[in-house]
Amino acid sequence: MPLRIAIVSQAYHPAVGGVTEHVDGTARALRARGHAVTIVTSRFGNSGDPGESTRDGVRVVRLGRNIVIPYNGAENNLAVGWDLGSRLSELLAPDGTRAFDVVHVHCPVSPFLPLLAIEAAASAGIPVVGTFHTASDGDGMIRLFRAPLRRFVARLARVIAVSEAAREYAARHFPAPMTILPNGVDLERFRPGAARLARYDDGVPNVLFVGRFDPRKGLPELLLACERLAREGRPFRVILVGDGRLRRRAERMASGALRGRVHFEGRVTHDRLPSYYATADVFCSPALGGESFGMVLLEAMALGVPVLATDLPGHRSVVTPGHDGVLVRRRDPDALAAALARLLDDPAERRRLGANGLRSAAGFGWNDIAERLEAIYRSVAPSGARPPREADAPDDALVSAGA
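Above: the chain's sequence. Below: its structure in token form.
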């Protein structure tokens, strides 16, 4: 029987990042499986987002507005608004125009929207599932508020972590049984054969970076490594997809030996991103820490692109070193440069890693993950869960098309 599912996340389109992609991917896959899905998030900037809309058959409700808080070397989305609590209570009220069988809260101990959603759902008698996405190097704020936050975690009917690294981090502060359910990848969107970008398809090897220009993503380390290779006269170019507070620093570093080699593409649309991966000869993620997973690595692998990344527990959730990717010490531009040089010099090794990565990525399709998630929902949802109202019911054409 179809379920009515509310997914609560402070990170969602137009915000970029792993949580956004996770929410979008699971919502689409659950919709394709016949469920009525509502994403509850906030308005972003001056984007003019309406209070309610539909995205590929998924209802999106926006409450309050988003602000960005720099913390732990990254930009963190935070929904604020005086009426968030009352709006959530109204949305989740069992006697309202929309009721839900389960509420799924992402980043459940983050202020304010996730905590308020747990409170509102618990008050309405709706079971709540929570997913932890973080594997942080710093936990000072969590320690400070751990006692009250534990009361919210205790209200979760099921607790999920996206990787062993995320589980270990969450369990340090919130001991509870946890299920590991990884991030996934859209195997239709990211697949071999995607169109290459003609302007970069000229025989010069392309090194691709995709991510926010945050301190923890390690972009300066990548540019230092590439500078070393450039001074050796090695042919290559660097394509940077993303933006952020390190943009000016990156632009300054892209001078001297790297002049003319580094191309800043800014934020790339959802539809164009696969072409950037398809154009890459090597994908590089030089993150310094705080990565609970390696979603961008998975996207590259799904297109058969060899990946080079720093050796973090979250990256090991995706990459088996030497089999489907290369991992090097973090904060070590020399090690990064040496590994990158070996890959650029060895097309056969790139092909081998890419082929193995393609096979590895096949095990992370969103439909398989949504099937496991559905089983979790059914384990906590009332056994007599009612079918969606007509207004909520999935459109048959959209479902059959996998929307």
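The radius of gyration is 21 Å.
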